[in-house]
Amino acid sequence: MVAMPKEAKMTPQEYFDWEEKQPIKYEYMDGRVFAMTGGTIPHNDIALNLATALKTHLRGKGCKVLIADAKLGVSEKGPFYYPDVMVSCDERDRRATKVIYHPCLIVEVLSPGTEAVDRGKKFQNYRRISSLKEYLLIDAEEMTVECFRPQKNGFWEISNYAAGDEVNLTSVDLSFPIEMLYEDVVLEGLEAE
To answer: What span, in angstroms and rounded, lies between the C-alpha atoms of 50 and 182?
Structure first.
């Protein structure tokens, strides 16, 4: 993410009006906008593999599976982000056309340029979403996944997955081998087959 130079902070409505006229997407945090940078092919492949599995699994169950062009609002006042993949099974989001506010699952595919924000400020803000049951971080350079789940005591528990593990997403009742996420993905340092 690259911050855009702005003299004054924008209101959420100013952001919505302004962003509609822009050729690229911008995330919105603390009154400022941040340009979304392009991802790599492995990043795209991982997000597509997961979104495809989620869409197939949730077909007919009243849930929406959304990808990188769908905007997520932490609240109506922001911040606003574009997660790589998210799922909402909430009736309030069923007819949404601009913003999702009640996801149960948010997924970010990590890249060196966004990892600190995905783990830091974004995760801090995502934790404010009361409907959120899981936050998944998928590494695009090695076969590892981290899944964060809120606990009754207010803490977030982490489950780590690596090669050979079965990833379990309790928010959508889906389990799959981690290798499914990396199908047809060329990981850095490995030769294409």
So the answer is: 9
